Amino acid sequence: MSIQVLYTAHAVSTGGRNGHSASSDGIVDVELSIPKVMGGPGKPGTTTPEDLFATGYAACFGSAIEFVSKQLKLHPTSLEIDHAVGVGLVDGDIANGFGLVVDIEAKVGGLSQEDAEKLVEAGHAACPYSRAIKGNVAVSVKVTVV
């Protein structure tokens, strides 16, 4: 597979999950802290890699749906993407390392359930984040017509 790169993002992180991450242009500039539920300090005003991934993936997923909507001639009146990204132990055992789980809900307005599902499925197939994690991350997709 060959990819013609259209844009490249750059970021630097120091201190891992209890550190700092920033994009090279300084627009994204965040302090990180492991949540208390994961045994970390859960510092106020901080975020997690999962928050950042969920935010980026949701935006990319929505854009992929908007892109394919033109091709399919299915134009929703509204579109809201809700991503939940969970992190945990693979098979409950630290020896297996950590893995992610992604639950996606696409709330689509102005289309039938059938057309909304067709549109979201096509967007999921086109989304580079979805393609990147396919086969490696458990992903569930729910389509709700609003």
- Overall shape: it is globular
Structural class: alpha+beta
Strand arrangement, major sheet:
1-2-3
- What gyration radius follows from the Cα positions, in whole Å? 17 Å
Question: Unreliable stretches, pLDDT < 50, 5 or more residues?
Answer: none
Q: For the residues shown, what is the average pLDDT?
A: 97
Architecture of the largest domain, according to CATH?
2-Layer Sandwich
Count of discrete structural domains: 2
| Oligomer category | single chain
Approximately how much helix is present in the residues? 25-40%
Strand element count: 6
Portion in beta strands: 25-35%
Give helix and strand order, one letter per element, not per position: EEEHEEHHE
Describe the sheet with the most strands: 3 strands, antiparallel
Number of contiguous helices: 3
Kindly, what is the distance between the CA atoms of the first and last residues, rounded to a whole number of angstroms? 38 Å
